[in-house]
């Protein structure tokens, strides 16, 4: 395994911080089945699966140790939930997301008009706290998703994802299910496509090319989100599980390793009721946030929304 860069070893992240705004009640799944496109759901075989890694890049994230788990067969969306599909949910239910209820969400600062003065979270100056930013206006007032119907819906908090899943007759995947599905049948795979490292040509997934956060060359054709099927599917027929947008899992975030600081990290995660997010996003780069690996993980409070966070559903077989 190639050595991580000094920046990567420090555990730095392009992720927006937890908002800690006080999430609403946690939803429960139903079998309503609304808005479900059965043609875009893939069967995932069960069996013994290896989760995590014995060669972690970010030990503090709890990427290791590797462990074997037994999984039942399940089903999973081929794509992240799109703007088109989330709009159907909102139209049918009148649902208001966390970002709408609280009036703001995090937007990557490079997407904002020059000179716009918005607050930045401490330690992550590339994010702006933008009033009026939410899934249908991802860069704030005046923006829209009209030309991004097949892009993943963003500014989706965990509570939003659970509510959508209940309406759609699905659920959020467990972290073990997500990793197993992302590997596409290769239990040793680092990425959905295998072991090959993405390069600056950006042909394998939608991540950052250039120097984060100052210069994104857009060599893969995308500066922000890409269509959910912009890259080749993995062995199970799933598209873009790594890169593009972070995806929520059902699990509470917890560090299982004995790495220094694990006890304090777990206490902080429990206090914020953090949930696992997987897959990295269009803002990830190996020099800074090498979290588009399948074993990589992070945790955020369930009311956290940002312009690079979406979801994908699982279903019982």
Describe this structure in words.
The chain is α+β, with helices and mostly antiparallel strands and about 325 residues long. The chain has one domain: paralog of FGE (formylglycine-generating enzyme), CATH 3.90.1580. Helices cover about 15% and strands about 15% of the residues. The chain is built from six helices and 13 strands. The strands form five sheets. A four-stranded mixed sheet has the order 11-10-9-12. A three-stranded antiparallel sheet has the order 1-4-13, with no helix packed on it. β7 and β8 form a beta hairpin. It is globular. The N terminus is likely disordered.
SSE diagram, text form:
Elements: H1 6-9, E1 41-44, E2 47-51, E3 67-71, E4 74-77, H2 83-93, H3 98-102, E5 104-108, E6 127-131, H4 158-168, H5 175-183, E7 210-211, E8 215-216, E9 246-252, H6 262-272, E10 275-278, E11 298-300, E12 309-310, E13 314-316
Parallel strand pairs: 9-12
Antiparallel strand pairs: 1-4, 2-3, 4-13, 5-6, 7-8, 9-10, 10-11
The CATH level-2 architecture is identified as Alpha-Beta Complex
The helix/strand class is alpha+beta
Q: Figure out the total of helices.
A: 6
Q: Sketch the topology as an H/E string, one letter per element.
A: HEEEEHHEEHHEEEHEEEE
- What's the CATH topology name? paralog of FGE (formylglycine-generating enzyme)
Major β-sheet profile: 4 strands, mixed
Q: Quick check: average pLDDT?
A: 90
Low-confidence stretches: 1-10, 23-32
The share of residues in helices is 10-25%
Q: Which strand-content bin applies to the residues?
A: 15-25%
Find the count of extended strands (DSSP E, 2+ residues): 13
Instruction: Determine the N-to-C terminus distance.
Output: 35 Å
The structural domain count equals: 1
CATH class categorisation: Alpha Beta
Strand order of the largest sheet: 11-10-9-12
């Amino acid at each position: 395994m190639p050595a991580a860069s000094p920046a990567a070893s420090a555990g730095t992240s392009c992720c927006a911080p937890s908002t800690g705004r006080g999430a609403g009640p946690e939803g429960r799944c139903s079998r309503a089945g609304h808005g479900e496109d059965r043609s875009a759901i893939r069967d995932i075989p069960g069996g013994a699966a290896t989760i995590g890694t014995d060669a972690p890049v970010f030990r503090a994230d709890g990427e290791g140790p590797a462990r074997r788990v037994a999984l039942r067969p399940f089903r999973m969306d081929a794509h992240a939930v799109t703007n088109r599909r989330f709009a159907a949910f909102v139209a049918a239910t009148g649902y208001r997301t966390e970002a709408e209820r609280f009036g703001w969400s995090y937007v990557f600062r490079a997407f904002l008009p020059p000179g716009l003065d918005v607050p930045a979270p401490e330690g992550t100056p590339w994010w702006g706290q933008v009033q009026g930013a939410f899934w249908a206006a991802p860069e704030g007032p005046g923006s829209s998703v009209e030309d991004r119907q097949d892009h993943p819906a963003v500014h989706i908090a965990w509570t939003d994802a659970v509510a959508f899943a209940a309406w759609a007759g699905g659920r959020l995947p467990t972290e073990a299910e997500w990793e197993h599905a992302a590997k596409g049948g290769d239990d040793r795979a680092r990425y959905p496509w295998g072991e090959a490292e993405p390069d600056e040509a950006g042909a394998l997934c939608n991540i950052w090319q250039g120097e984060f956060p100052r210069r994104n060359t857009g060599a893969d054709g995308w500066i922000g989100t890409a269509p959910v099927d912009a890259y080749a599917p993995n062995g199970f027929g799933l598209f873009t599980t790594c890169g593009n947008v972070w995806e929520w899992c059902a699990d509470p975030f917890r560090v299982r390793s004995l790495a220094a600081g694990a006890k304090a990290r777990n206490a902080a995660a429990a206090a914020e009721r953090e949930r696992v997010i997987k897959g990295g996003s269009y803002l990830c780069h190996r020099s800074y946030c090498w979290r588009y690996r399948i074993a990589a993980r992070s945790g955020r409070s369930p009311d956290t929304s940002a312009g690079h966070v979406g979801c994908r559903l699982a279903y019982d077989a």
